[in-house]
Protein: Tetratricopeptide repeat protein
Amino acid sequence: MKNNSTAHSVHGGKMIVLALLGVSLLAILVTSFVYRTMHPHITEVVREQPPAQMPQNGAQQGASTEELAHLMALMQEDPNNPDVLKQISDLFIRTKDWERALFFLQKAMVATPSDPQILYMHGIVLFNQDKPEEAAAAFESLLAIEDDASARYNLGIIYKHFLKQPEKAQEHFSALLANDNAEPELKQRAQQELETEHK
Structure:
């Protein structure tokens, strides 16, 4: 009788723990959704690019003085190499040094003005410099070359929350949802933006 009562008590305890976990998970999801709604931000999808050939003993990821020195040496050998300029820009973007990133992006744009990756990075930098109109122009230029889901999402955010043009935002979010190549998470975020009111 006592054993039966103990087992019943343990089972009840497990149910309470599971219920608490469920409530906690729900609270996290709701908090995340509310935060994202209250703090809209563009997405900074990292596009793959061919890495510069690093010395074997210095190979490493992330922004570093050694990486920058290596890229600068490559640029001295070939000042207009767009791949090297993109990698230098990417390094400064990762360290949020927007001024320097913009400087090298502009050099890269002279070399290859229609490079989608450079246009995307240009939009990211301009947005982070509090220049939403110029950032939108950069992303629009990219869309004129290819239908990029991340650029569409960023345009939707910029038009909805920063330029106060909800019709244009809706146009880009809807186009993103119709893009078969768009990531499911990006589609979900676009759908949430369509379902929430303009702030």
Remarks:
- Confidence is low (pLDDT under 50) at residues 48-63.
- Residues 73-196 form a domain with the Serine Threonine Protein Phosphatase 5, Tetratricopeptide repeat fold (CATH 1.25.40.10).
- The two ends are 62 Å apart (CA to CA).
- The chain has nine helices and no strands.
